[in-house]
């Protein structure tokens, strides 16, 4: 049996294409007698296309008593050969192999997302013991060990900072676009990246209990648990086989003509039924590709048509994932907004912090002046920068930085500045010679098309949901601007997974859209996962069923509408193919059709199914 299975798997899609081409030529030679041969050329199609179908049917019956569409096809093939209708047998084998090829082309291959996620796991750790620093494999770290993490290194295990200040890029866990300042007593997670200052930490969760290992297990379990849709033809195969065999047997008994019985088996062969779904899916995938979607799973559009909720990650999906200067506010009469902006850009010119780079980038975009070079520069991890500009000592950073340098604040103006924090913005405070002079407000920028996209999705009867690792204030601000009613902020990967599980348990199929590594488990476990292919991580793309290649989220409503239209097309194809089959059976019972004509009639139905599906290639919902 294993030898039969290996034979069927030989060569995969390439083998199927070669067999179909050779078989097609052989059938043309057979019907038009183009080349004199000592045997009917249709036997080439029977051997190349028919034998694998028969073997597949035998394997299914013997190993699991699994009755699929190929059982009825095998019966029709064998019966046609017995009564020497070789061309009919070859034609049926050819069209069924074509349907199988289309199905294979819509099934995604094995993905490497989990392997890439494993590569994010830190391999070594700097363990401090007895005043000495030793580099050991990360899996050997024990709870309670003291570990030193240098700038640019990944945190090897979960723990608590004992000494030092830094900024941590937590995108791998939370998807937040900006690094988070950390100091003594703060928790850090494995897999996150230390950006600036070195720090010492005490391990609290190691090995399989660490955050990155938990996420790997989440992705693996979600992938294994996702159900696959069974083809319509295979789902109905048992009843089709029973009806076909009963009709053929009764016809043979009543009429005494085996040719009529065989014709029934041939016309009842579910070619159009098998083609109904894959042809529509292939056409819909072609349409989706033109609109920037790479469909990685063949049945993804089938699942997408039934979703009740679409869960969005915020950063990089609804927003650009890049901080922008939203406002420049002076609190000192000697400094105009322009002068304040210029000082801030000069102070941050040599900064490696994403916020500092954002200030310089936005300044250069809004003015033709280049930032002034600082005479001195010092970066203070977890706080900000200190620079000497035109003889003045300039501080640019968080509130704690200015307080540590004895800068006093006007409480009324400070309250105005901190009001931006409640809106999810980041504030950079500036001081000159220990005097507060103003502040800059930065925030992630909402995509221009996001509001219209959310509105159109609601119009399709699907409810948008915001699942984000960002702070609640930032999430609520974005949700209000977009009109999203349901918001869940501060979500870790397992939190997003939990919310998706709740929706599914409530009978609400959900689609997840995200771009970060932290979204991978949710993308896997959702009924449909869509990743931002342009800015998204490789792991998120590998975990998803569909990738939005150019990040044009405005096309998401089209994809949703296309999936629903595709299902309508599939249902029409199924109704038509079954109606045609029953009509052909009546004609076969009365003797109007013989096996060859019957094969041509029901294959004509297959052609009409393909044509109907092809209309999906250029379909677009009228607005």
Cα distance spanning the termini: 55 Å
Helix tally equals 25
- Radius of gyration over all CA atoms, rounded: 32 Å
Low-confidence stretches: 1-11, 106-117, 221-230
How big a fraction of the residues is strand?
15-25%
Q: Roughly what is the average pLDDT, rounded to an integer?
A: 81
From the spread of the alpha carbons, the general shape counts as elongated
Main sheet, how many strands, which sense, barrel? 7 strands, mixed
Percent of residues in helical segments? 40-55%
Structural class: alpha+beta
- Major sheet strand order: 10-22-21-20-11-18-19
Number of strands: 22
Offer a few descriptive terms.
about 625 residues; alpha+beta; seven-stranded mixed sheet; six-stranded antiparallel sheet; 25 helices; disordered N terminus
Question: In words, what does this structure look like?
Answer:
The structure is a single chain. This protein has 623 residues and is α+β, with helices and mostly antiparallel strands. Helix content is 50%, strand content 19%. The protein is built from 25 helices and 22 strands. The strands form four sheets. A seven-stranded mixed beta sheet has the order 10-22-21-20-11-18-19, sandwiched between helices. Helix 22 links the parallel strand 20 and strand 21. The protein is elongated and about 110 Å long. The two termini are 55 Å apart. The N terminus is likely disordered.
Summarize the topology.
Blueprint: H1 2-9, H2 12-32, H3 42-64, H4 69-82, H5 86-105, H6 113-119, E1 124-129, E2 132-137, E3 146-149, E4 158-163, E5 166-169, H7 171-174, E6 180-182, E7 187-188, E8 193-194, E9 199-205, H8 211-225, H9 232-235, H10 237-255, H11 258-267, H12 271-290, E10 293-295, H13 300-304, E11 309-312, H14 314-318, E12 319-330, H15 337-347, H16 354-366, E13 376-380, E14 384-389, E15 392-397, H17 399-404, H18 411-419, E16 426-432, E17 435-446, H19 450-459, E18 463-467, H20 472-482, E19 486-488, H21 493-505, E20 510-514, H22 520-525, E21 528-532, H23 538-543, E22 546-548, H24 556-589, H25 595-614
Parallel strand pairs: 11-18, 11-20, 18-19, 20-21, 21-22
Antiparallel strand pairs: 1-2, 1-3, 3-9, 4-7, 4-9, 5-6, 5-8, 10-22, 12-17, 13-14, 14-15, 15-16, 16-17
